[in-house]
Amino acid sequence: MMARLLSGDLPRSRALTAALVAILAGLALAPFLFPGTRPLDVAAKVCVFVLLVASYDLLLGYTGIVSFAHTMFFGIGGYGVAIALSRMEVGWGSIALGAAAAVALSLVLSFLIGLFSLRVKAIFFAMITLAVASFFAILASQLSNITGGEDGITFKVPELLRPAYRLLDEPFLGTIVGGRFITYYIVFGASLALFLALLRVVNSPFGRVLLAIRENDFRAEALGYRTVIYRTIANCLGAVVATLAGVLYALWLRYTGPNTTLDFAIMIDILLMVVIGGMGTMYGAVIGAAIFVVAQNYLQEAMKAFSGLAKGMPLLPDLFHPDRWLLWLGVLFVLSVYYFPHGIVGQLRARKKQ
Amino acid sequence: MNAASADAIPAQRFDWIPPALLLAIVLGAFAMIGTPSTWVTLTVAGLAMGLLIFIMASGLTLVFGLMDVMNFAHGLFIAIGAYVAASTVKFFSAAAGADSFLANLGAVVPAILAAALVAGLLGWFFERVIIKPVYGQHLKQILITTGGMIVAEQLIHVFWGPDLLPLARPATLRGSFLIGDIAIEKFRLIAVVVGLAVFIAMLLLLNRTKIGLLIRAGVENKEMVEAMGYRIRRLFVGVFVAGSALAGLGGALWGMYQESVTVHIGANMMVLIFIVIIIGGLGSIGGCFAGALLVGLVANYVGYLSPKIALGSNILLMVMVLLWRPQGLYPVSKQ
């Protein structure tokens, strides 16, 4: 049953299994375990980013192509829902329509970009996606009558998802069962389902072909696989899942703006999560996203404490300034690429073999 | 094939279509704009922007042509150049504040040189530490250079602080010359002069010296140059350092033009630089020049004629060029 659910791709390491179970349990029971607004925000963000990073891993880790346009698709999802809910009647129909339109747009865009630039080298694709994504970000900030410009769009969600809504009058196990509770479980459930679907994809014959292309595209082509087509399909698939992640994130935040979706900094975050967690292992997305989002929210406080301790010494307080947390994750990223190409997951699995 | 014809290598015919296209755009813009004074102002602005981009992009495209390395952290050298220039101008603030052109140059020239020097040194370090271990692995190159950029941007924050840094342009370099009713910004003229000087120096180096010959040969066929007994690695380090120094120089000029420096100055520029070297043909220095001028001119003309599409003009330009010549304006022949 379990193996079937995970498509036969088991964690294959006791430590990794323990970590994954802990993360899953933590996320599944988040509203009960961690009461309060901020921890629930962190948990929802972890869910969305696990999905986003997993869809990026499909491209980077499994197919071996580097795209810098993943945040663009993430943003398309967010803006799709935001525009639909702010322009049309607030309801489930608008959400479905906005999401469908966003997915369609993402499909067309990713297909065009793929056909246009996946024939040639990986570097070319990376450069083109970077250019297109930055163009899209400028477009979103300039077309302020549609996208709200730099301010973004704050929108209303259906009654059932509003914070003021109460499903049960009495708190259940000390937790208020209301709009936020329901929204969280929608985000969690959808992320989990889509993650398992991605796991299914990478362990299918299609996924094997992607791996073959990553390892040696020339040989894959010689074996009779049209590498361009496989790469383009992977690109489209990654884009669609990223769009859906954007939809979920927008529903959670009830807001979509350039800073939450299209910013290049988010692209960097995704890269860090994939590489630190482990490229080419779907579980790496879970580990990477969980570590990163928690670090983003709580590492700064640890650094603040350390920076206070180092006060008076030269340079150290600056290096450990709370705003410099990205510096240390960046160093970890560079070291990962050199020494642990399969990230934390790869390390855990390798230890078992010894 | 007889011996005589084998001795004489036929000179490569120069492809005149891209320069002709540039000229056509300049003339076409004149027809559409109508007023000569506006047209001259826009053309000078476009040339200045194009040449600045060329200064920054030339090193990147050569490095790619020579060693198949794409440095996604190239923007870092631009940012470093701008920051170093800001610090240097501050250091020579007496000269920068004076009201004579020569005294101002006494602040600007050291700033530009210091920017190029520091960026070059950093480039050398970067090549040794970051890029050397990942030759021939494109995926890792992209990742590792992006990672290097993240770390370096944060280090810039550590040393220079996270806030926007003002970089005041000296007094005599502000404002514009007025010739009749034509206004030409002084600083743009300086950018044009420096850019042309760099381009001519580069052409002389590449076409008239032995090192240039080796670089051009290395771009076309690396193995053959190595087989002849030349150490292409060492040549490559030289090109990488020179390219980084040029990026620093361009960053210094760009920072002075904007009169402020943030850490994103390089990353913002990177998008334009990528577009330029894709348009020009990856690895081609002539293509980089033509592409840079094309982007600079078109951006300025379109910005004036119809500001609505100005945002997308670069992307549209890239798409159109690639539909016409998928390998770029001047494709590099690779064996």
The N- and C-terminal alpha carbons of chain A lie at a distance of 29 Å
The first-level CATH class of chain A is given as: Mainly Alpha
Strand content range of chain B: under 5%
Radius of gyration of chain A: 21 Å
Strand order within the widest beta sheet of chain A: 1-2
**CATH-assigned fold name of chain A:** ABC transporter involved in vitamin B12 uptake, BtuC
Looking at the structure, what is the overall shape of chain B?
globular
Counting copies of identical and different chains, the oligomeric state is heterodimer
In terms of per-residue confidence, which ranges of chain A show pLDDT below 50 for 5 or more consecutive residues?
A: none
Write down how many β-strands of chain B occur, each being a DSSP E stretch of 2 or more residues. 4
H-E string of chain B: HHHHHHHEEEHHHHEHHHH
Uncertain residue segments of chain B: 1-5
How would you sum up this structure, described in words?
The complex is a heterodimer of chains A (354) and B (335). A two-stranded antiparallel sheet of chain A has the order 1-2. Helices cover 74% and strands 1% of the residues of chain A. The radius of gyration of chain A is 21 Å and the shape is globular. Chain A has helices at 2-5, 14-28, 30-33, 37-63, 70-87, 92-117, 122-142, 144-147, 179-202, 205-215, 217-222, 227-253, 258-261, 264-277, 282-309, 316-319, 325-339, 343-353; strands at 153-154, 255-256. Chain A has 18 helices and 2 strands. In chain A, helix 9 runs antiparallel to helix 12. By secondary structure, chain A is mainly α. By secondary structure, chain B is mainly alpha-helical. Chain B has 15 helices and 4 strands. Chain B has a two-stranded antiparallel ribbon with strand order 1-4. In chain B, strands 2-3 form a two-stranded antiparallel ribbon. In chain B, strand 2 (176-179) and strand 3 (182-185) form a beta hairpin. The model of chain B is unreliable at 1-5 (pLDDT under 50). Chain A binds chain B through residues 60, 64, 66, 116, 121-124, 126-128, 130-132, 134-135, 138-139, 142, 264, 268, 271-272, 275, 315, 318-319, 321, 323-324, 326-327, 329-331, 333-334, 337-338, 341, and chain B through 64, 70, 72, 130, 133-134, 138-144, 146-148, 150-151, 154-155, 157-159, 162, 267, 270-271, 274-275, 278, 282, 311-312, 314-315, 318-319, 322.
